[in-house]
Please model this.
Amino acid sequence: MYHPANPVIQRARDPSFTQYKDYATSPNGSFFAILAKNSVNTFTLSVFGSSTILRADSVIKVNDLYPDVTPRPLLFTDQADVKWSPDSKHVAIGFSKGQLIVVDWRNSQGICNVFEDIIPDCHLHGPSGFDFDPRSKHCVMTVAASDMTLYRVNTEDKKILACCNDLGSFVDCFKYSYDSNYIVAALFSRKIKVLDTEDLSALFEIDLTVLCPDFEDISQKLGSVAPNMTCLSLTSTGEQAAIACWDRKIRVVQLLKVLDLQCLCKFAILSVVTPSNVNKLPIPHLIKDYLYSFPYNP
Model:
């Protein structure tokens, strides 16, 4: 580990860790969490202080808290994603087997097994398909489930707060905006949907098959069930989204930072009228020019 205040590289060898699965730094910058699959085929979550890696502040055997959360028997077949709550008190872990758990790392306590305690009829669509709501301390998160639905849940009260079940496709990945006003979701159907963070209602959508005609469906091109879009990131202003796609291209999409009534009307029209047909609408040319403008390009 390298620390800029004291430029010394620290090394620590732990023979019990055989496969490291994921790493995440806490939002306050004081801790980092490592998930590993150890030699006895169980998952272990270790949390270290940022000043040293010689001794873990907390070591949690996931199987002790959640007996059903176990690795696959074959080597290198498990994927996992570790994410911290905004207040750095809880750690959530998503697994490729479709499980999602939340733990209190300081007290070594299990908080919630989301798809047993809250959404029992489905599972996590992908190991990265979840995130904490930046506006909450540690109890509210959004989850992409296998039933093509996005859920907003409270992990302490174990309740569903809102859901969006009209996506029409699986959620490959999603991201909260930095001001927490909306969620940007990348769908397997190669569409980008922008949702309200409170009730998950759709604000507008962008069809990448229109913007990027060269973006082919991985299921048709390779016969694979892998996601079309593997990662999504937003700029600090929330005006652009960068999407990593299966064809090894990163596509940057222009978004709107502020959604006023005029913008909402524009996207309502474009949700039912393709850009190529805008010129046929019986409306003034100035309005047509506005509809043609960003993020669509005729």
In short: Confidence is low (pLDDT under 50) at residues 294-298. The helical segments are 62-65, 114-117, 208-211, 218-221, 261-270, 285-292.
